[in-house]
C-alpha cells in the first residue's frame, strides 16, 4: 500500500507519524510464552525531544527486539497496546541467549552473528549487521504509524492542523476513528534482488512490484496467488571470490499485508498492515539455502512425503465424463503401454453435481466404491479423491452443519453463504473444534473405504467481511490462515489413520507453515507454452518461500492441450518433484494425443522411476536442511551472478539441471554454470569455463536439456 506522494510528501488522505528519536532503551523479558530469553525494548517519540514540552501531545512507538533462533531477530512495533484478534502464525523457536548492550548513543541486541542496533537521542534508525557487515536497515522516517482519514469526520480537523505539526484531536467519542496502519521500510543494498512472497506468477525477481499477501482463486496468470507468503529473500550474488549477501524477511501477520518492493521508495522494501502493531523477523545466513533453511525450521519444518508420491499420478480430469469403466480403461491402458503409474485421482464428480461436498460417491457411476478401491490397490495403485471445505446448500450435510454451528456465520447469526462455485455454499469453520471433529469423521469413512489420500482443493475464497468465526478472531486475519487450519485438519487425520510416514495431501492453497502438509500444486494453468513458463516461475517463487515440494497440472488445466504442449509438459512434469496429469475438459491419457505422446510419457516416467533413489535421497536431504528439492538456479549457485534472474530452468536436487522446452519449434536457450556437466539423455560431456556458458539448442520430443554435474 502506498502512502507517500513522491519521496518527500505524504498523500493527502494520510497522517504519517514516524519515530523521530528513541529516548529510552531497556532490557526486558520477551512478553510471549514462546521466547524466554531477554529482549531489548526501545521507545521512540514521533517528534524530536528538545525540551520537556516536546513530551506532551505526542505519540510513541514501542519497538521490542528478541531472538527466536540463532541469526534471527524478531522486531515487534506497537503504537497502541491493543488486541487485534489476528491469529499469529505458529513458530518453533530455539532457545538463544542474546547479547544486549547499551551506550549513551546506541542500544543493540545480537543473536549469533546477526546484530540489530538502534540510535538513541538522535535521528531514529535501526541497522542490521551480519558478521559485522550491514545487510539492511530501517532508516530515518522509514517506520510509520499512519491514520487513514478518508471517509472520517476527523479528516478536516486533522488536515487543518498538519501545517503547524499540531495533532490535537476532537473530544474522544465525538468523531469516527480513522483506520490505522503500521509500516516499515527496509533498505536494499545496490544490486540486491528480491525473491519469494509465495507462488507469484509475475517477474521472478520482485524488484519494482506491488504485492498483496492475500490468498485468492485467480489462476496462474494474474497478480493473484493461491499461496501468499509474507516472506521474501533478499540476495546479492558473490562475485570473484567476494561472498554474497543474503537475508530473509518474514512478516508475522496473517491478515493481508502490502509490500512495495523497490517501488514506492526504490531502494527499500516497504510493508504495511492494518492495526496498531507490526511484527517481522530478519533471518541472516551465508547462502540462500542457509537463510531458507532457518526460515523453514522457524515456521515448522518440512515433512517427507512417502516414496510412492514421487511417481506418476493420473486424474479423471474435472468436467469429463467418467465412471468405473472409464477409470479402469485408462489404468489398464497405461499398464498395457508399459507406463508406470503410482496414484489414481478421482476429481470432483466422484460426488454428484450441485452437492459438493457431500463426501458420498455418485452411486450411478460408482456403484461399488469399496470394491473399486480394492481393485485399484490390487494393481499396486494408491487412491486419491478430491475434497474441499465448502458445503453446498443442496448437500445433505448442510442442515447438520447449520444446526450445529459448524459454518462461518454472518454478523446477524445466519450462515455466510453465496452461489459462487456451489449453490448456497457455506464454509466449514475450522476454528470450531466440534466442526473439525465432524469434518474429520466424514473423511475417515472414505479412508476406511480404501482411499489413501486427499486432494485438498480450494481454501482461498474465504469471507473477510461480515464474517464471524467461532473463536471470535478478526475475519481478515482468519482469511489467509484458513488454509492452514483446513490442511492441518486433513493431514492430522491422515497421520492418525495411515501413520505419519504415509500421510500426504495434494493441496492448492497455502500460507506460512504449510510446508508441514505436503504436497502443493500450482493451480489452474492454461494449456499454452506461456502458461508453462508462468507455472514454473510461480513454482520457483513458491520454493523460494520455505516450501520443499511442488507440482503442477501436466498439459495445463484449462482448454484442450495440443500434442506438442502435452509432450513438452510431460517432460517438464516428470522432471518435477511430483508429477500429475490433470485437466478440465480433456482426458490426459497420452494415446488420445498421438503415438509419440505415448513414447514420451513412457520414456520420462521410466526415467523418473529408474532414478528414484537419487530423487528420494535428495528429497530426504532437502527436508533435513529445510530447502526445496526443485530449486532455483541462484539457490544452488549463489556466487554466479548469471543465475540471479533465471526462471525457465532449475535444479532437481543438487546435481540435475533441467531446462524445459517451451516453444513449438523445440528451441530452447539456457545457461550452464562453470563445471563439468554430462547430458543424461545423450551422454555428451561439457567442461564449462569459469564464466559459465549460454546454450541455444533444438530438441525433438524425446529429449530436452537434462544435465548432471559430474566430478
From TrEMBL:
Q: Known InterPro entries for this protein?
A: Alpha-glycosidase_related, Gal_mutarotase_sf_dom, GH, Glyco_hydro_31_C, Glyco_hydro_31_N_dom, Glyco_hydro_31_TIM, Glyco_hydro_b
Q: Does the keyword Glycoprotein apply?
A: no
- This entry's Enzyme Commission designation comes to 3.2.1.177
- What GO terms in the biological process aspect are recorded for it? carbohydrate metabolic process
Superkingdom of the organism of origin: Bacteria
Q: Name one GO molecular function term.
A: carbohydrate binding
Alphabetized, the UniProt keywords read: Glycosidase, Hydrolase
Keyword flag Hydrolase: yes
The record's listing under SUPFAM superfamilies reads:
(Trans)glycosidases, Galactose mutarotase-like, Glycosyl hydrolase domain
Catalyses:
Hydrolysis of terminal, non-reducing alpha-D-xylose residues with release of alpha-D-xylose
PANTHER family reported for this sequence: GLYCOSIDASE FAMILY 31 (PTHR43053), MYOGENESIS-REGULATING GLYCOSIDASE (PTHR43053:SF4)
Which family, according to UniProt?
A: Belongs to the glycosyl hydrolase 31 family.
User: What is the official name of this protein in its record?
Assistant: alpha-D-xyloside xylohydrolase
Q: Which organism is it from?
A: Weissella soli
Amino acid at each position: 500500500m502506498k502512502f507517500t506522494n513522491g519521496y518527500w510528501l505524504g498523500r493527502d488522505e494520510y497522517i504519517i507519524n514516524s519515530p523521530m528519536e528513541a529516548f529510552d532503551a531497556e532490557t526486558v523479558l520477551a512478553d510471549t510464552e514462546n521466547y524466554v530469553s531477554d529482549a531489548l525494548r526501545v521507545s521512540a517519540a514521533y517528534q524530536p525531544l528538545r525540551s520537556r514540552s516536546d513530551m506532551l501531545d505526542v505519540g510513541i512507538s514501542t519497538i521490542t527486539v528478541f531472538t527466536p533462533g540463532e541469526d534471527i531477530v524478531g522486531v515487534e512495533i506497537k503504537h497502541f497496546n491493543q488486541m487485534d484478534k489476528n491469529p499469529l502464525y505458529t513458530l518453533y523457536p530455539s532457545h538463544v541467549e542474546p547479547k544486549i548492550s547499551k551506550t549513551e548513543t546506541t542500544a543493540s541486541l545480537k543473536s549469533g552473528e546477526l546484530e540489530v542496533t538502534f540510535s538513541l537521542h538522535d535521528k531514529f534508525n535501526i541497522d542490521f549487521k551480519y558478521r559485522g557487515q550491514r545487510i539492511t536497515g530501517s532508516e530515518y522516517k522509514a517506520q510509520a504509524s499512519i491514520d487513514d482519514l478518508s471517509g472520517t469526520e476527523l479528516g478536516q480537523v486533522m488536515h487543518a492542523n498538519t501545517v503547524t505539526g499540531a495533532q490535537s484531536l476532537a473530544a474522544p467519542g465525538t468523531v469516527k476513528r480513522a483506520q490505522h496502519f503500521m509500516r516499515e521500510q527496509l533498505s536494499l543494498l545496490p544490486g540486491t534482488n528480491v525473491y519469494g512472497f509465495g507462488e507469484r506468477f509475475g517477474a521472478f525477481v520482485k524488484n519494482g512490484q506491488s504485492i498483496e499477501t492475500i490468498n485468492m482463486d485467480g489462476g496462474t496468470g494474474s497478480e493473484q496467488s493461491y499461496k501468499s507468503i509474507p516472506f521474501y529473500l533478499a540476495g546479492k550474488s558473490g562475485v570473484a571470490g567476494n561472498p554474497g549477501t543474503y537475508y530473509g524477511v518474514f512478516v508475522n501477520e496473517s491478515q493481508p499485508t502490502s509490500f512495495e518492493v523497490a517501488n514506492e521508495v526504490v531502494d527499500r522494501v516497504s510493508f504495511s498492515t492494518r492495526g496498531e502493531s507490526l511484527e517481522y523477523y530478519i533471518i541472516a545466513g551465508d547462502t540462500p539455502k542457509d537463510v531458507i533453511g532457518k526460515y523453514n525450521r522457524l515456521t515448522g519444518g518440512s515433512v517427507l512425503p512417502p516414496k510412492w508420491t514421487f511417481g506418476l499420478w493420473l486424474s479423471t480430469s474435472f468436467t469429463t465424463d467418467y465412471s468405473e469403466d472409464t477409470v479402469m480403461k485408462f489404468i489398464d491402458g497405461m499398464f498395457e503401454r508399459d507406463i508406470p503409474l503410482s496414484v489414481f485421482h478421482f476429481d470432483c464428480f466422484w460426488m454428484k453435481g450441485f452437492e459438493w461436498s457431500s463426501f458420498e460417491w455418485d452411486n450411478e457411476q460408482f456403484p461399488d466404491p469399496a470394491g473399486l478401491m480394492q481393485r485399484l490397490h490390487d494393481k499396486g495403485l494408491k487412491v486419491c479423491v478430491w475434497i474441499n471445505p465448502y458445503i453446498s446448500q443442496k448437500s445433505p450435510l448442510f442442515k447438520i452443519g447449520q444446526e450445529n454451528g459448524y459454518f462461518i456465520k454472518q454478523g446477524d447469526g445466519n450462515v455466510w453463504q453465496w452461489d459462487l462455485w456451489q449453490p448456497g455454499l457455506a464454509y466449514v469453520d475450522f476454528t470450531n473444534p466440534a466442526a473439525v471433529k465432524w469434518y474429520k469423521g466424514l473423511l475417515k469413512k472414505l479412508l476406511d473405504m480404501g482411499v489413501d489420500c486427499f486432494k485438498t482443493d480450494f481454501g482461498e475464497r474465504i469471507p473477510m467481511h461480515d464474517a464471524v468465526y467461532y473463536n471470535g478472531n478478526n475475519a481478515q486475519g482468519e482469511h489467509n490462515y484458513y488454509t492452514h487450519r483446513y490442511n492441518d485438519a486433513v493431514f492430522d487425520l491422515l497421520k492418525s489413520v495411515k501413520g505419519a510416514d504415509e500421510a500426504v495431501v495434494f493441496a492448492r492453497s497455502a500460507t506460512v507453515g504449510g510446508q508441514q502438509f505436503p504436497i502443493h500444486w500450482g493451480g489452474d494453468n492454461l494449456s499454452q507454452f506461456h502458461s508453462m513458463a508462468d507455472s514454473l516461475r510461480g513454482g520457483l517463487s513458491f520454493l523460494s518461500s520455505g516450501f520443499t515440494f511442488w507440482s503442477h497440472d501436466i498439459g495445463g488445466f484449462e482448454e484442450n492441450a495440443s500434442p506438442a504442449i502435452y509432450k513438452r509438459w510431460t517432460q517438464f512434469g516428470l522432471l518435477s518433484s511430483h508429477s500429475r496429469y490433470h485437466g478440465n475438459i480433456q482426458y490426459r491419457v497420452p494415446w488420445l494425443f498421438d503415438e509419440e505422446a505415448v513414447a514420451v510419457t513412457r520414456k520420462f516416467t521410466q526415467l523418473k522411476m529408474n532414478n528414484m533413489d537419487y530423487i528420494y535421497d535428495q528429497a530426504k536431504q532437502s527436508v533435513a536442511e529445510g530447502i526445496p528439492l526443485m530449486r532455483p538456479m541462484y539457490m544452488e549457485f549463489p556466487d554466479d551472478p548469471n543465475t540471479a534472474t533465471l526462471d525457465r530452468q532449475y535444479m532437481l536436487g543438487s546435481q540435475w539441471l533441467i531446462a524445459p522446452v517451451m516453444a513449438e519449434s523445440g528451441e530452447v536457450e539456457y545457461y550452464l554454470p562453470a563445471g563439468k556437466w554430462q547430458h543424461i539423455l545423450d551422454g555428451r560431456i561439457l567442461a564449462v569455463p569459469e564464466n559459465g556458458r549460454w546454450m541455444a539448442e533444438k530438441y525433438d520430443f524425446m529429449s530436452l536439456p537434462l544435465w548432471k554435474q559430474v566430478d
